[in-house]
Amino acid sequence: TNYPEGASETFPVENNNLDESAGTRPVSFSRELWIEAEDFMEAPVPKYKRLYPGGPECRLKGAYLVTCTGCRKDDAGNITEILCTYDPDSRGGDPADGRKVKGATLHWVDAGTAVEAEVRLYDNLFSDPDPDGADKNFLECLNPNSLTVVEGAKVEAALASAEPGDSYQFMRLGYFCADKDSTPEHLVFNRSVSLKDSFKVKK
Questions:
Q1: Contact 137, 126 (CB under 8 A)
Q2: CA 41, 45, 51, 52: dihedral to nearest 10 degrees?
Q3: How far apart are CA 172 and CA 195, in angstroms?
Q4: Are 109 and 39 in contact (CB under 8 A)?
Q5: For 135-153, what is each residue's pLDDT tens digit?
Q6: How far from chain centre, in Å, is Cα 158?
Q7: How far is 157 from 23, CA to CA, in rounded Å?
Q8: 178, 166 in Cβ contact below 8 A?
Q9: What share of the chain in percent tops pLDDT 90?
Q10: Which has the minimum average pLDDT: 31-45, 83-97, 126-140, 173-187?
Q11: Cα-trace Rg, the chain
Q12: How far is residue 131's CA from residue 166's CA, in Å, rounded to a whole number?
């Protein structure tokens, strides 16, 4: 809310934080951003370190530190906007006074330049880690949620030039590749690898 209206700027963000030789890409920033819905809670659970009213400062990846001051809702009570202030002396995500940031680092896209995409989230085909085990019918072990299609996902503007087969890491979400049917007019990305495995080894 304290960022200048109509202003925008560009930040260099690393392509691979484990490999400096991969270089950086320019990412635009403005007063209005898109973030993951799960990165805000109006009434936080214990140890929640993302955005909530009166919560800790959070780092917008590569950009600034922000503090949540509230939210706006529609007539049905759905949250439509999250209100924050930013620290102008924290460009790049590091506060000028060196203070420790207690909140999480969040990924985001600029609402003014983001493009829409269809994102296909593939999960385990089976809900049982051993579907062909003794006395099991593998058909009954099929995971009904093995594919979730997200329409209208917001992605960085640079992805508009993605070619079929191009691979990317979507921060905190997994690895994705552009589908063979993806076009600049209708971007389609398929998740190839999730960053978390839902199957836990039982000891």
A1: no
A2: 70
A3: 7
A4: no
A5: 888 888 888 888 999 999 9
A6: 16
A7: 18
A8: yes
A9: 74
A10: 126-140
A11: 20
A12: 33
